[in-house]
Write a structure and sequence with these properties.
- By secondary structure, this protein is α/β, with parallel strands linked by helices.
- It has one domain: Molybdenum Cofactor Biosythetic Enzyme, Chain A, CATH 3.40.980.10.
- It is 43% helix and 20% strand.
- It is built from 7 helices and 6 strands; from the N terminus they run E-H-H-E-H-E-H-E-H-E-E-H-H.
- A 6-stranded mixed beta sheet has the order 2-1-3-6-5-4, with helices on both faces.
- The longest helix is centred in the middle third of the chain and has 14 residues.
């Protein structure tokens, strides 16, 4: 069973101004898919806080999924932090998610979503929109165990 951390980045959700629907949805999706949800956090859009949290959890999970902070706003810094910490990008996965998004909405061309590896942990950065998270999770969740097995040098069937 793979271990997952779900991190929502949102100033408003972290203050309780609105419900974190995308993080809740992801929690349900991964639990139904057989993953162990180890960490579920809602934090404000803060570079230092995100960097510290990623460094703290990266050795205890196989997968980190973030939601929020992938746009063009000055507060959208999720991708910048991941780029600073990552060992390498999983470009095919990033491309697949962008392609899926563009098929649904031309506004997706402004997303900076990224899939990467930090140490032995896959990280997927997703938009904060429940609609986007729903559509994108349908693309990658069914195939994720294959990639995680490769990442962990496990035999792939």
């Amino acid at each position: 069973m793979y271990k997952v951390a779900i991190i929502t980045l949102s100033d408003r959700a972290s203050r309780g101004v609105y419900e974190d629907k995308s993080g809740e949805y992801l929690s349900e999706v991964f639990e139904k898919a057989g993953y162990e949800l180890v960490i579920r956090k809602i934090i404000p859009d803060d570079e230092g806080l995100l960097a510290s949290l990623l460094e703290e959890v990266v050795n205890s999970v196989d997968l980190i999924v973030t939601t929020g902070g992938t746009g063009l706003s000055t507060r959208d810094m999720t991708v910048k932090v991941v780029e600073r910490l990552m060992d390498y990008e999983v470009r095919g996965m990033s491309i697949a998610l962008h392609q899926c998004s563009l098929e649904k909405s031309k506004g997706a061309m402004f997303s900076r979503a990224l899939c990467a590896v930090i140490k032995q942990t896959l990280i997927i950065t997703m938009p904060g929109s429940l609609k986007a998270v729903t559509e994108l999770s349908e693309v990658f969740v069914p195939h994720l165990t294959h990639g995680l097995a490769h990442l962990n040098d496990e035999e792939v069937h």
